[in-house]
Amino acid sequence: MISSEGLTVEFDDLTALRDLSLEVDDGGFVTVIGPSGCGKTTLLRTLGGLEEPTEGSVSVGGASPAAARRDGRVGFVFQDHALLPWKTALENVTFLRRMAGKPADETGAREVLATVGLEKFVDARPATLSGGMKQRVAIARAIHLGADVLLMDEPFGELDELTREEMSVEICRIWRNYRKTVVFVTHSIPEAVLLGDRCLGLHGPPAEIAWERSIDLPRPRDRGVFESAAFQEQVAAVRRLFHGER
Length: 246
Known about the structure:
Shape: globular
Order of helices and strands: EEEHEHEHHHEHEHEEH
Strand content: 15-25%
CATH class of the domain at 1-73 and 180-246: Alpha Beta
Largest sheet: 6 strands, mixed
Helix content: 25-40%
Strand order of the largest sheet: 5-6-7-3-8-9
Number of strands: 9
Structural class: alpha/beta
C-alpha cells in the first residue's frame, strides 16, 4: 500500500505540494490527471523517494519511499525511457536488478520481454526499436526489478495517437498479469479512464487533490471498451470534473 498524509513539498520559494493525503491499496491502479506544472511529477517523485517531504508523511508497504526504492520495491517508468543505448533489450531489462544487488535472472527477463511482446527483440539495441517498443522495454525493466509499485509519469506522452492507444491497452493486459500497484500520471482523459480503478484530479501549484472519481468499468479492458457507451460516459464525467463542472 502507498499512504501519504499531509504531504507538503517546498523548493525555495515554491510550494509544489500542499497537505496532500492519498492511499492506494495493494494491486490498485490510480490515474492522476491535471494541467501541466501543477505538481504531478513532484507527487510521483515524492512517493518514490526521489524527493523528501517538507511536512507530512509517506510510506510504501510500511517503509519509507527511499528504503523501498533502494530495495527495488519501487520502479519508475518515465516519458523518457532512459534505456542504455549500448545495451540490448535483454541487458537493459536486467541492468536495474544488477544495480540493486539482485541476480540478473536472464530467464525471467526473457519471460517478461515475451509478456510485453518483445520476445523476438531481446538482442536488439534501442536505436533499432520504435518508440512504443522502447517503452515496452522500460516497462519490462521495472517489472523484472521485482518492484511491487510502479510509478509511471506520462510514459506514452511522446508516442503517436495510435501507438499510445495500443500501449494503453497493453498496460491493461500487463497489469492483469502482474497486479502491481500503479500510480499513472497522464494528460489524456480517455487514457486515465481506460487504465484506472480511480482517477484523481490535481490542481495547483501547489498540488492539491481537487476531485476523485471511481472508474466503474468491468475488467479486463481491451480495445473494444473505447466504443462502449459506459466508457464514453466515464470520459464525459471526468472531463466535466476536469473543467470544474459537476
